[in-house]
Amino acid sequence: MRDAQALPALPDATHDPALLSWVPDANRHADFPIQNLPFGIFTPPGQDVPRGGVAIGASILDLAAAHHAGLFTGAAEIAAAAASREELNAFLALGATPRRALRTRLSAILAAGSRDQHTAERCLHPAADCTLRLPARIGGYTDFYVGIHHATNVGRVFRPDNPLLPNYKYVPIGYHGRASSVRASGTRVRRPKGQLKVPDAEAPRFAPCERLDYELELGIWIGPGNALGTPVPMGEAEHHVAGYCLLNDWSARDIQAWEYQPLGPFLSKNFGSTISAWIVTPEALAPFRMPQPARPEGDPPPLPYLLDEADQCQGALGVVLEALILTADMRKKGLPPYRLSRSNTCHMYWTVAQMVAHHTSGGCDLNPGDLLGSGTISAPEPGGFGSLLEITRGGKDPVALPSGETRRFLEDGDEIILRARAERQGAASIGFGECRARILPAA
Amino acid sequence: MRDAQALPALPDATHDPALLSWVPDANRHADFPIQNLPFGIFTPPGQDVPRGGVAIGASILDLAAAHHAGLFTGAAEIAAAAASREELNAFLALGATPRRALRTRLSAILAAGSRDQHTAERCLHPAADCTLRLPARIGGYTDFYVGIHHATNVGRVFRPDNPLLPNYKYVPIGYHGRASSVRASGTRVRRPKGQLKVPDAEAPRFAPCERLDYELELGIWIGPGNALGTPVPMGEAEHHVAGYCLLNDWSARDIQAWEYQPLGPFLSKNFGSTISAWIVTPEALAPFRMPQPARPEGDPPPLPYLLDEADQCQGALGVVLEALILTADMRKKGLPPYRLSRSNTCHMYWTVAQMVAHHTSGGCDLNPGDLLGSGTISAPEPGGFGSLLEITRGGKDPVALPSGETRRFLEDGDEIILRARAERQGAASIGFGECRARILPAA
């Protein structure tokens, strides 16, 4: 624990851990106390039209209704109007200033003692009665590979002699994923069929994936973005980050091993990806920023286009990430989900700003609602590995579950639940909401 | 030349080579005679709102205006209404039946002797005065690698001992490209900067690409598409193809060589891709279908999910593809573009139907307006190579141009022009229009 006197100051009053909300359960809520205020798209019970909302405790504040009720003025009103639509792309495009104004105003509306309580109460829905949607239309989805312990662990399985390739410490490695198959938490994922080839087989066969895996990742929502041909320099990169989520990059390891050379993963990933439905803002996570961990002795410094003093000082994030499993048998026996992985975003070798600057460094455009994935974030120690490929060493060491079952890879009916928690001394801890999905049998 | 009696019959009267149009120049037009009728999005002179149009000779028929003038009924009217909007996604989503009805009706309207000539004349614009746009909002862009001679040639540069990897003849290799940076013909392309590392350098440096290349590809526009989790079987795959274009998949070879392991090309491709602006329909290309070329002796047959009798019989396309260069010096000297590559779509190892079936085989969804690229299509012989990487053997053998210049890779001010021509005895030949763009210096 850091000494209390050495704690960095909280960014503003919206983070005050003493701040309480009048919304029932908000002050006891692990993920969504008043210090969080994440944005999402939901459909209230009995209604068809999705609209923007803010999670507060076990409730959702309907932004369209609150806007209509006249609760916002100025920059906050502009942001609330943009966030009232059927998707949050226009809101993400606004950038930090209106988003901050809206946060400040929402904090005041929802704080205990607010004179707007009576009006706002009529805009609240119990979250349990609502359906959560994808928060934005995802134009482009790029998955990075910045979890260095994951890259090392996986590299060891695919390339035992050469786990970490020579470019890894120079290039924030990434590739284009499939945006169309990203779904919000709760949508079931069908096990893919594909070409499987065991090393000693003469030819591949087409069959349901036998090595289905999860990947524990941080998702990054892009805000304003850049024009084609106009790179975003490091010093401006954070301006284009509109928020964060959890991302489960489901992976068919057997399909991947056979298909991925020379152009990378394709069908092994594009059958589906799951994200948590709430966009946790950079403002909410501001107290959990930290210096970029020192590179190990002997690692090269980032090239100048990826180097920025402010980013070195506070470009990393300290957020605990967890992956849990709940099998059909565990559900039947009433057992709670079992934790497979506990990691932390501080294990990213490259910061989010470096990912944005690199992505645009050749001129590629990023646009509001684009999604970046961090790649699997594993902690260095066992118990911290973010995928079964790593935990079971490619299926060699099955993991034992409290139900008496074992898992090398995922089975039909298994549910994977990702959770995140940001906490530090002197600040209210916040979470991301669940990123959860269950595996359906192959068609 | 095939014997005239053995020529396959033309699909319908819209292909009759004797059919003439009343539109000036249409009957002499290399690309857009009345037998073609491709769809696109254009802005007429002095107007702001893009709308759908059909290329006929050197003119564009304004579909919104023609629809408004009452020229369509029934299924053709449904298609014309969908094609009148600012992007063709809704039209692509309709599938073949309304598209065919619209083609039949357009052929009648534009045919010499049509009683609708007077009405339709008022809906024509000179193409030279119009601005062509991207024909659809591209949701997802996937680039394949089905040009087997290209895969072999390139494999030899990157992996001399192992040019064609073991999966190539089983898997239609593809990867997700960047949809946001695809632009219509005519938009200039800025040379990217990126990490370059020559093999004997200790570290990479960040600098303008020194090995900028083009790639000669066929583009495929997706029509109706499929729901996530519901693969498209081979027998239905063609139903989801709404048309074709030319695609220049600009490639930064030096960036690519350093970044592409282990997750594939990223910044080496996503700075920009150029497509021809007209969607040439499957109907227009029907006379140029051909049997899938026999696989070389010893090659494995496609796995059952990629095998279909009709596809074997007529799933391939015979379209001549060309890439030409025009340098700043050639422009100054008034020299015509110089042909670098002359290839043919018959050199695709996998058919378009196989690409669609494979893409969806694990459950991934395709959607109206998605774009597939074939990958570079090289012919086996020199003169048929579809990229400078192949032509100059990785820069070793510069190509001599009529201006007295040489090129290992592209220089600033160079323009690459892709063209396509479908021709066979007994049918009117058609083209795709140009896919052209000029290289701007790095920023």
From TrEMBL, chains A, B:
Task: Name the domain of life this protein comes from.
Answer: Bacteria
Keywords assigned by UniProt, alphabetized? Calcium, Hydrolase, Magnesium, Metal-binding, Phenylalanine catabolism, Tyrosine catabolism
List GO molecular-function terms, semicolon-separated. Answer: fumarylacetoacetase activity
So what EC number does this one have? Answer: 3.7.1.2
Q: Does the keyword Metal-binding apply?
A: yes
Q: Which residue range or ranges hold the Fumarylacetoacetase N-terminal domain?
A: 35-135
The cofactor(s) it depends on are: Ca(2+); Mg(2+)
Please state every residue range assigned to the domain named Fumarylacetoacetase-like C-terminal.
Answer: 149-439
Query: Which residue ranges traverse the bilayer?
Result: none
- Which pathway does it take part in? Amino-acid degradation; L-phenylalanine degradation; acetoacetate and fumarate from L-phenylalanine: step 6/6
According to the UniProt entry, the coiled-coil residues are none
Asked if the Swiss-Prot or TrEMBL record annotates the protein with the keyword Lipid metabolism, the reply is no
Group of enzyme by EC:
hydrolase
Protein name (record): fumarylacetoacetase
Instruction: Name the species this protein comes from.
Output: Teichococcus vastitatis
* Gene it is expressed from: fahA
